[in-house]
Fold this sequence. Notes:
Blueprint: H1 6-11, E1 23-25, E2 38-44, E3 51-52, E4 55-69, E5 72-83, E6 88-100, E7 103-115, E8 122-133, E9 138-149
Amino acid sequence: MIAPSAELTAYLPKCALLPSTAARFTSGVSLVLSPDASFEVHRVYPINAPVIGGLKLVEEWGRDAADYVDGNGDAYVYDEYVMENGDRFFARSVFVTQRASGRLSATQVGRITSATGKLAGLHGIARVSVNFDPKTGFNEIETNTEYTIGK
């Protein structure tokens, strides 16, 4: 298990590390019913991993502080991306969610804030579209990232 950086932990101190969990809600109540929830999403990329700066992405931790009513609302998201060599980069974004056909759909847009190692100097933006259902664990995501690596 890879621990989150101090940078992310400081933003959302009540999020616990929950390995091998697609999504966990710290309030213990469904996201759909719980305003002011915080939760984290952990993703791994065992095959067809995205490559950034010549490195494969192997893991992503998304820590979110949300304000939802019946599945509709927004969240502030702090993401930590872990590359195959242990380098990391971080992003901060806003996530807007709405209920549609029993599932939730969301759009997330944000910027890369910092990076370590070979990725130091990474800057860019990320756009994410997600369809998910916290009750069943369904989580489908599409991410588009535009970036440059400069010194």
